[in-house]
What we know:
Number of helices of chain A: 16
Radius of gyration of chain C: 31 Å
Oligomer: heterotrimer
Strand content of chain A: under 5%
Radius of gyration of chain A: 23 Å
Helix content of chain C: 40-55%
Order of helices and strands of chain C: HHHHHHHEHHH
Largest sheet of chain C: none
Number of strands of chain C: 1
Shape of chain C: elongated
Order of helices and strands of chain A: HHHHHHHHHHHHHHHH
Amino acid sequence: MNPSCDPLLAPGETLHSVTEKIGDIPLARAPRWWWAGLAAGFGGAMLLAVSVGWLFFRGIGIWGNNIPVAWGFAIVNFVWWIGIGHAGTFISAILLLLHQRWRTSINRFTEAMTLFAVACAGIFPLLHLGRPQYFYWLLPYPDTMGLWPQFRSPLVWDIFAVATYATVSLLFWYVGLLPDLATLRDRARTRGAALAYGLLALGWRGDARHWVHHERLYLLLAGLATPLVVSVHSIVGLDFAVALLPGWHSTVFPPYFVAGAIFSGFAMVLTLVIPLRRLYRLEAYITPRHLELMAKVLLATGWMVAYGYFCEFFSAWRSGDLYERFAAANRATGPYAWCFWLLLAANVLTPQLLWSRLCRASEWALFAIALVVNVGMWLERFVIVVTGLHRDFLPAAWGMFRPTFWDWSTFAGTGGLFLALLFLFLRFLPAISMSEMRTLVVQRESIP
Amino acid sequence: MDRRAFLQAMAASLALAGTGCRGRPPHGIISRVEGTAAVEVEWFATVMPSEGYGRGIVVRTNHGHPTKVEGNPDHPESLGATDVFAQAAILSLHDPVRSRTPRHAGNPATWEQFAEAWEIRRTRFRTNSTPILAILAEPTTSPTWLRQIHALLDDFPSARWYQHAPLGSHSHRGHLPEFDLAQAEVILTVESDLLYRHPAALRHGRALAGRRLSEPGKPLPPRFYAIEAVPSVTGAVADFRLPMAPARLSAILPAVDRCLRDPAAAPGLEPAADGFVRDLADAMRRARGRVVVSAGPACNDRIRDWSDRLNLHYGRDVVRWRRDVRSDRNPRCHGGLADLAAAITVGEIDTLVVCGLNPAYAAARDLRYGELHARIPFTVHLGEHWDETAMLSTWHLPEAHFLESWSDLRGAGGIASIQQPVRLPEAESRNAAELLHYLRSGTTAGSETLVRETWRAAGANDEDRWVSWLQRGIVDEPMHGDEFVTPPEDGTAELPPSVGKADGLSALFTPDPNVLDGRWSANAWLQELPKPLTQLAWGNAILLSPALASRLGVQNGDVLRCSTASGELDAPAWTMAGQADNTVALSLGYGRRSAGPLASGLGYDANLARSAESPWHTAVLALRKTGGHALPVCAQGHFQMDGRDLARVLEPAIASPALAPAHRTSLYPPRAGGNPAWGMSIDLSACLGCNACVLACQAENNIPVVGREQVARGREMHWLRIDRYVTGDPAQPRFVAQPVPCMHCENAPCEVVCPVGATVHSSEGLNDMVYNRCIGTRYCSNNCPYKVRRFNFLDYGGDARAAGGANPRVTIRERGVMEKCTYCVQRINAGRIAAEVAGRPLRDGDVRTACQQVCPASAIVFGNLADPASEVSRRAASPTSYALLDELNTRPRTTYRAALRHPPRP
Amino acid sequence: MQPEAQSQVPVPRRSLGQAATTALRVGIAALVMLAGGIAYGVFQYFHSSYWTRVGLAEDQPVLFSHRHHAGQLRIDCRFCHASVESAAFAGMPTVATCLGCHRQVLTDTALLAPVRRSAELGVPLRWTRVTRLPDHVHFHHGVHVSRGVDCGVCHGEVARMALTAKARSLDMRWCVDCHREVAPDAGGREPAPTPTAAAGHLTNCSTCHY
């Protein structure tokens, strides 16, 4: 059947069944696969701990970074994670303002994903410092040296952008959670659970006054969050655009970074949602219609990213600048050309499969495509950072970047941390907003 | 109170003075028992041995610690400049693995025990004429040492003196041609590294640079021709360079001579050479009387006779033959290493004393010296290191470093200097003269007494005179007048049979530019210093021409097996543009078995394939790939300029104003230049690419050594690097060397991106790097178009802290901070403070950077751009001056002047 | 709709009431105040003499009194700190200098025993440093004195100190404030105009850090 006219909510769902199905996940005992997942994530997090420990003990030198390639995996991973952290707020805030009802069943989950991705991203700028113990010099505070941060540096803008984004996303997510926390509190089977959820629920008792305040605050936060979706990755893009390196010094970066962010964000959402709706039997709420819509977003943003790539080459050629042209050529033919072509295949060719309804309808296809795009987006950042740096103006100073074991372990480690947080979230909080689903039920019932 | 206690005492006060750079000093501040207030900086004039010849240097001590070597401006062989080795010497002085205790059969022993062992033999040598006592040493110019050896030969009827010069000799038939490059119009070098490895190299460099420094209205610089198989520092700066295999070399000079006699005559060589020779002959004919021809140590006697002859006829005004002051041809010398080997084989030698040499490693392996050495009943080795020869010797005795003992040396020009110690030896060690004196007399005399004894006649007893010698670093003795000779004309005989088949593959043995024959192996600075032209570090490779490489299908790093009549060796290949086809170059000084933890096992040992009778080149029997791969560590990424206008080369005739940087418009207001406005001008046509500036910078600024693996990762720390570009046909290319320090851009891209303001602009135009504010984002390095910034990826500074000799006026950088060239800001501050305390303004030349001070070619000039009269302003104003990557509008304070090279005649 | 679904809606259990809410709000307020308090505490600590050592006399091997020597006896600073006008390091008196006087006066007080012992044994006398700058600061006494900066500006009223103590925090802001105004009234003396250049370089980082 045609998924595009699927309902957003399976027939036969009632206010009660919604609460039952979703609310029971945190309250019931954890299934076996959950423990497996958590263990995997926890293992990864431990790997991260070891890597970071060794990093602090020995110094940045345990990575492959060098001169000229002074930025390596740390920055690549940072940009990649931050990108992933965009889908959440985009879905929750922008789609909310646009009255896209299909967001309701996935927003809670994607917001959580956003927070964890931002958490992983946030680690890297700190780790990649030569002297992380002095990270607080990046913050303006009255010190005994009479010095302030150097506000012309995009890295300082980063601090503010990312910190604001993290805070607002957290608030937005938490405010959305309040009614559900109250529900859980009321349905809790043990005194402990009731107490915990009760504390988090901030005394929500669901009376009209609460709802009015809640709705208003939620809209306000949505309004606040919307510009942030654009600002954060624009500023991350400026880290590169502001530099004078051929291949970096280009105005296309901010917009195409944002597009890329949403692209990778939706890819990650799909990668996670598709297995989870099966495991938790949530097909009733996350319907083929949702997957279909997300697939379309993926296709659209994919094209924006492709346009970005094109622009880079076009402006390099159009500039007529010797170094810009060389940088572009070096991407396509230099020692790292294979990364470049791989990323084109992953980010430009693969999404084209989504033109076909069959692909959009098939979970497996979608899952595979999403995975490929995730890899492709990581490669994109690698190409930008490493090929941008390894051959710049003076040929004598050219070099190569070879990642070490610790580069990989740190990256894998953050993946583990992300998983661990995600599984804890699935275990203890409702993965789908019950309150908002109830409104869907009501709306449907109100339709004759 | 003795000097050492004094040093200990001062260590603490360093910290109080705010200059504590050796980590945390002992907490506390010292009242010494007596003495006067410490002098922060003292200078001592002394002299450094270089293959037996002396070069005047002055040593800086901070609070009594020797920290830096500079050239002695009063010394004619230095003229204020030094070579890389003089810069590296300070590190050797502080080298912890230097031998500190005598060893008997490898076990630590004492000098007293050696005394006992020796006393028995000494009495025997005094009386009997057998068995034979042999002394093996490198030829030297030291009057004191020669006095000792003569005395010993007088006293011991059985004693023999053998000499071995592992690096060959520039003198020929007992005379050393002395060139006046400042007057020469045509210079021809044949396998001769006139500007880098020659007893008068520094003098030559200064003179040539003087001619090449582009000044409006100056006569054109001399036409410089070089014929050599492997590109050398000298060949690389020549106007015309002809790559030629050694086998064909003997034919060249006669051909030149033919063309000189008869312009129409055909040289009768391969086409490339023909053109070269015609052009050369033509130039020589025009410049008759002002032609310099130099044939290097690797040339056979015939070639050198020919060069003498050409000099005689065409170099009248610019060449003199000085009686060599080195003892190569000393009548009392019994022979060379080969003779010694022969004597050992027949069992004549009962006792052998090796002074400073390491023949067990450095001798051609077909001599089997090691086995012979071990055969001798009683062997004594005096050396600074526990090396291969020491291991084979009955006794090893620690030799005093030349900065720790008294001696005397003569420069190539014959001028004598007293070598005085700049600190007490850390361990009981003696120098060669002391040892000889002891071996003979059985009594110990301090090296100072011996030296004074030597110079008593010249007036060493007169204390004032003595002190003035020490202060100036030169002995004022009357010249005898018989310094100069005229060589007999016997170079015109028929050509000798050429070594090896002319068309066959021949192997050249070249002393490594950094560690020579291995005598500098233990020096970390020289190991990490990228070698001139190849830019290889921490090892050696088999160099071959691109053509040969492609014929053999060899990539850089492929392991080759090279076998000659004497033996075979495996080593990685490295293609060298401009190398003569059909030659492979094997560099000496690597593959050491006992050279301390640093150098043991690095690279391959070329001596394995070397033969004693023809030590510099031999025929290659087979050269094939083993299938192995071991990429040598190279510090430079890419050797072509790829159409970028980086290191400019011009014809001397042209001084085109078009090159002057167009004034760029900018949205930003121009920066106030400040006064003084510090700036630097680097003249590429003077620059020899000799690397002295790189090591001077390393020594002055406590730049750490990072080791082979880190260099391979691209993390070398040199603040000043020399980029080397190869242009034109790879078979006969042109080389350009471009020193690249921090440009101190007025619009510095690094400054805007630092989030904490750790790199900021000073009021005088310096691009300050504030280590203690840096948090290590490395963004500045990304944004530096010149990539001159260096990062402490690991705790590199730790070693520098541990080792002595760090410059207390420069902070040792912590792990995780960025660093770069500061224009020697510590010198700027010292100069300003001195001026302010004296209440006078800063004058041009008050502040000289380390690289500027050491440069033999005075290619680097630093000073105040706001003062139009300053030298740097004058140079920066010249039409050939340009800014690197000017199109980026970074407005560098460091500018370059294009290299001037004669174009080939049409 | 399934009617049975309607029927089995459970009665909500007793939820946490208003009290819990209030407790929570109070808790949150407390947390915020605690955080602020800690921040304030940290700030104060680094400005207190516990951290800066200002006004705290160090233990010394000899109970030397500047008040007596510099104050009552009016011995010039330079008599003991000889290189203060020319060198980076102000210089410490040698034991011989001490004994120069103390061979005549107070020749056998227990107070001076360490000094005499050091002279006998030839072991340097080790004082505890009172004024200490970090290794990355390059300070030069000579240039400050020659510019007319009085010792007291940094070292305080040494002539009044029975036991010598640090007089200023010497943190960077303190140094820079002085450098910014080129110290016109430092020690009440008018500094000679710097002969080398405008005093602009005084606020460059590389004036002290290199």
